[in-house]
Amino acid sequence: MPSLSDVRVLHQAHPVAFDVLMAVALMPIVVLVPDSGRADASPLSGAAAVVAILTCAGLAFRRRHPTAVLVGTVGGAAVVILLDGGPSTISFVPFVALYSFAAASGWIATVLGFAGSVLGVGTAVALATTPWPPDPQAFQHVSSFAVAAAVGMTVRARRAYVEAVEERAERAERTREQEAARRVAEERLRIARELHDVIAHRVAIVNVQASVARHLVLADPPAALTAIEHVRDAGRAILDELGDVLNVLRQQDEEVDPHSPAPGLDQIQPLIASFQAAGMSIRQSVSGSPRAIAGGADLVAYRVLQEALTNAHKHGTGPATMSICYESTGVELEVTNPVGDREADDHSAGAGFGLIGMRERVAAVGGQMVAGHGPSGRFEVSVRLPDREGVHT
């Protein structure tokens, strides 16, 4: 014997077939089983039986045309009651139709459908028995029709709730996917910036020193050997710093060196020394009380100076000037270098992506940056970074 869950599965998988089976199953019931409130327990016959069968058949369309089915079943039930001369089990058919109508309509339409069903069936019972005063049997269907309408409205509300929950879940899933894609894009951009900052100035040093070694390899072998040593040191530094950056791409179960902090202003002297070893002249000045800048600005300050000095090394025509000014609410950085006309154009073109990366980094920590050609043929990079810890103190 099929269980309730089997019936529910059949109902969900084949709703039209389920409605047809229900309509066919009701036909012998309404024709052969008389109403319990009647004195004569005789089945329907003749025209009443035909109308009852047609009325039951209308339930096969209750999902596709709930309004038409409700009107048809109420009318058919009224005709059967009038032809049979009293209450009949045919009233169960508009009961089912009213449930389907309520499940597919709003509460106002449901109230109107309930009132029409009670009025149609109740009037037919009253006319078939004693029109006035109405027989109490004319009102026996009020409570059953009210239950059908209430159950239908409850089912409709539940369906709407389930659909809303599913829609929210789908929207949340889409939002999670979009957020994940956004985070991936941001991480890729961050890694690209780090790779540019790490590699650019080291590769510039390698290029310069390789050119020096090429010119001195025959004329001054010891000097050429020194230049090659600088190339080797710069290459080793590239590998080390590149490894630190790519640590972020490791899997969770892979070991990451916890003793590799991000560079900051406290490591600016080794950076300057690497440029000076490559033959670059840098005049530097530091004012205020040196300290680490909070809020991620310390790494940004290091990367800004690294990129600015790299551009000065590649495109400058003389000594570069670097200044760091520590203030109570932040730090100001400035790098300037002389450039000729041709070098100025090369500076603007070659440092384009570097300048864009610097601006994005500075903006990310709430700082300000100005870069461009200043007076006396010098290219200037000026940056101000806030110290969030210093602002609160």
UniProtKB/TrEMBL annotation:
Domain (Signal transduction histidine kinase subgroup 3 dimerisation and phosphoacceptor): residue spans on this chain: 187-253
Residue span, DUF7134 domain: 12-155
Record field: transmembrane: 12-32, 44-61, 67-83, 95-118
GO MF terms, alphabetically ordered: ATP binding; phosphorelay sensor kinase activity; protein dimerization activity
Organism placement in taxonomy: Bacteria, Bacillati, Actinomycetota, Actinomycetes, Propionibacteriales
Entry GO CC: membrane
Entry EC number(s): 2.7.13.3
Protein name: histidine kinase
Keyword NAD: no
